[in-house]
Inverse folding.
């Protein structure tokens, strides 16, 4: 009995079953088997059963932690995916706008326009062909051109159920140009007015200042003169760019 008690004490000192209370056992003289005879309590605990129970408890606890982590990850992914608003018109238009200002526009990039107008402080283009000439000319005038930074706001201007869905898109941006070896940075606000996903008016406000024309100036005569100057500039550019032919790129 003393020998068995000493062996149990050694196991407890190693920390394998620390904190568990084990009843002392008596070994029989028969070497063919061992029998456990508790002194005071009618119940006894087999060491192998205790070890199995501890391992099972640890395995269940680990599985529970992994399940909680997986659930948390799935919840985060769902929240992140739901946060992205699908179907925004600006998501479709933006790559084409970047191509236009990056001097790498192709015929497909002008499919975003219907019978549209484009206006900036220098030009007033009417129709897709004139808009093509305006943007095709960037690669001829500037060594480099591109939008280097931007932020987008989009809101519907025709709330409710209507046949024509009107959306205004505001692109707050910074443009970069290289002209005769000189770097030029332009702060701009691009306004896109769309109907059923197509651009009907494109405005480029340099330094975020309102465009001057006969609708925005106090003097209609002065505004008409400004528009005439912009139209003349557009006609000259249109002629130089062979009237918006795609082969000019």
């Amino acid at each position: 009995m003393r020998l068995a008690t000493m062996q149990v004490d050694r196991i407890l000192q190693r920390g394998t079953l620390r904190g568990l209370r084990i009843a002392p056992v008596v070994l029989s003289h028969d070497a063919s088997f061992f029998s456990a005879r508790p002194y005071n309590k009618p119940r006894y605990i087999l060491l192998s059963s205790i070890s199995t129970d501890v391992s099972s408890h640890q395995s269940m606890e680990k599985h529970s932690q992994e399940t909680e982590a997986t659930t948390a990850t799935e919840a985060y992914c769902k929240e992140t995916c739901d946060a992205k608003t699908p179907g925004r018109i600006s998501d479709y238009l933006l790559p084409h706008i970047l191509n236009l200002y990056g001097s790498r526009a192709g015929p497909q990039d002008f499919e975003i326009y219907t019978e549209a107008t484009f206006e900036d402080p220098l030009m007033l283009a009417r129709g897709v062909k004139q808009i093509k000439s305006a943007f095709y000319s960037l690669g001829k005038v500037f060594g480099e051109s591109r939008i280097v930074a931007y932020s987008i706001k989009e809101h519907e201007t025709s709330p409710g159920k209507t046949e024509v869905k009107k959306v205004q898109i505001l692109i707050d941006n910074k443009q970069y140009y290289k002209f005769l070896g000189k770097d030029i940075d332009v702060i701009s606000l691009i306004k896109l007015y769309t109907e059923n996903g197509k651009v009907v008016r494109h405005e480029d406000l340099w330094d975020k200042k309102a465009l001057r024309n006969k609708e925005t100036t106090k003097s209609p005569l002065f505004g008409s003169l400004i528009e005439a100057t912009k139209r003349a500039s557009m006609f000259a550019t249109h002629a130089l760019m062979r009237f918006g032919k795609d082969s000019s790129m």
